[in-house]
Amino acid sequence: MKRRDILRWGASAALGWSATSVLNACRRLSPPSAVQLSLEATRGSQSASIVGTDAYHFLKDVGKRFSGTTLRLVIEDVPGVRVARELMQTEFTPLTGIDVQWDLLPLHRVLGRIEQDIAREAGTYDIMYWDQAWIGRFLEVGVNPKELLENSELRYPNYNFEDFFPSLVAHVSSYQGQLAAIPYDIPIFIMFYRPDILEELGLSVPTTMADYLGTMQKISEAKAPQVYGTVGQWKLEHYSLFCNMTAWLWAHGGSTYYANGEPAINDDRAIAALEYMLAQRQYAPPEAITWDWDGEAEAFRQGRAALFISWGERFPWFEGSPGSQISGRVAVAPCPQEILLRPKSECSFGEVPGISNQGGSSLALSRYSKNKDAAWVFLQWLTSADILTRTAILAKTNSTRRSTYRDPRLQAGFGDNPQVTNYFQVTLDAIENRMGTEPHHPNWINLGFDRFPVELGKLMTDQQSIKTTLNNMAEAAARATETF
C-alpha cells in the first residue's frame, strides 16, 4: 500500500468511514463510545473500501493459512487499546479469520499474568504488553521483530519499522541495544491546566519550576477547598508515587544511579527533589495520597484542581468525554523547564533524565507462543502506521510512529479544536525533546514497583525523613545491582 493510497484512503473513507463523521464523533464522545458509534454505522462495508490494495491482498492471503486460529493478548486497559480492539473485530478478523482474545487489565495485573506465563513457559499469551520498566527482565522472552521483518515471508506491506521514533525503539523496546519488542504506546508527562481559572486569577501558564509551585499555591489560596492548586498520583506503596517523584528528581539535576553504577538517589539533588514534592502536598486534596494515576486523573476531571503534570494519555478523559466536568476548559503545555539536567552520560542502566517521564510500552511476540506466524501477522497489522494513526484520532491519544503527527487525517480532523491539535504538538515535543526514561535495570521491577514506593509512602505519611527515605532507597538500589 503506497503512501498516497494511505493518505487518500484516510482522507475520504477509512475502511468505509467518512473522515468527518469519525472525527466529529471523537469530539463529542469518549473514546470507546466514539468508536462504537462510528463502527456500528458502517459495519459490513469496511473491507470493500480496501479491495485491490496490497494490505487487502496480504490479509486475505494469510487468512487462507490461518483462518480459525485464536490468539491471546494481555494488555493494559487504556482508551487506545479499546479502539484497537474494535478495529480488529470489524476489519482484521473478517479479512483473515484470525480471532484475538484481549485480556484488558490494570498494569500491575498485566505484570502478574506475564510473570506466571513465563515461569511456566506455557505460551498462554501469544502477544504481551511490556512496560518499559520491565524490558530488562523479559528481554529473552520476546522475539526480535527486526529479525522477523528481515527473514519472515509474512511481512506486512510497507510496514516501515524506521517510522517508529528512534528514541522509543532505544528506550522503550530495547535493552542494552538489543531489540525485543515493538513500541506500542507512549504515556508521557505533560502539563494540564485550566485556562479559565488562570485567567480568572490573572495567572500565566508556568514555565519554570518555581512558577509551577507558586502558581498552584496562588490557586489554592484563592479557591481551595473547592478547587485546589494541584493533584498527585501519590498512592502509598504504588509505582505511581515513584513515577511522580522521578519528574522532580530529574528536574533538579538528579538521577537514580551514577555512571559507575553507584546509587545517586540520595545525593543533594535528590534531597531538593523530595523537598519540592513535599511542598506540593499542602496545595492538593488530602486524599491525594490514596490516588494512583486513575484517581489523580478523575479528581482533575471532576474539577477539583487547576494544574498538574501527568500522563498525556489522560487527555481523552478530560476533553469531550461524558462525565467530564472540565470538557472545553482544559489545556496542555510543555512541562516547566528543568532547573538542571544530569547528562545521560553521567547515569547508568540506560537512564535518561528529563521531566517528561515516559511510561511507554511495547508489544512482544512471545517465544513460547504456539501460533507465532499468525501472531506476527496480527502484531504487524496492529502496529502498522494506518492503525496506529486511526487509533490516535479516535482515542485522542499518542502514537509511537512519527508519521502520525504529520498525517493529514490528524491535522485536518482537529483543525477546529485548537486544544486537541495543541495536545498532539505538545506530546510530540515531549517525546522528541523532554523525555525522561527510568533505568533499564534487570531488577527494576523490584525497585520501581516495590522498594522505592514503600519508602516514599513512609515519607508522604511523615513516618520518616527525606534523608532516611533516600538512604533506604540508595541501599536498596545498591543491593539490586549486587544480585546480577
From TrEMBL:
Residue ranges of the TM segments: none
SUPFAM superfamilies in the cross-refs: Periplasmic binding protein-like II (SSF53850)
Any single Pfam family the record assigns to this protein: SBP_bac_1
Family the entry assigns: Belongs to the bacterial solute-binding protein 1 family.
Organism listed in the record: Roseofilum halophilum BLCC-M91
Identification of the protein by name: Extracellular solute-binding protein
Keyword entries, A-Z: Signal, Transport
